[in-house]
Specification:
The chain is mostly helical. The chain is built from five helices and no strands.
Amino acid sequence: MNEKDILSTAVNVEEHSLSELQYWLQYEKHTWFLGAGVFWLPYGLILMGLSILAVLFTPYMIWHLFNAKWYKSIAVFLTVVILPFILSQFIPFENSIFVFLSNILPLVAFYFYTWILSYLIGEHLNEIQTLKKWRREERSRS
């Protein structure tokens, strides 16, 4: 394989992983419906549902970010979401408001992170598609 083929394969793997992740992140944007259910359902049930969805989606997200070689995004995720969650599990709070906030803030950080990640991936995929289109047009002119 020459260098051009290797680069093309790397871009295809990155594009495929990011496309798969972007597909599922589009559904994540609609979880605010579940969050809005707090007005009609017990908030504990809603928080449990959102937490279960976050726990199930996290390995999938990290796997695709790893395949796409978006290591900085994984580091940001660990710093912004996982580290506060772990710290909240080890710090005992006596005030019920602090207990509630320590439970909800990592969840809010997770969904905010995935919302921003969805935007970044969309922009990156758009850039890749634009570059491919320019290359095709350049080849057709030659």
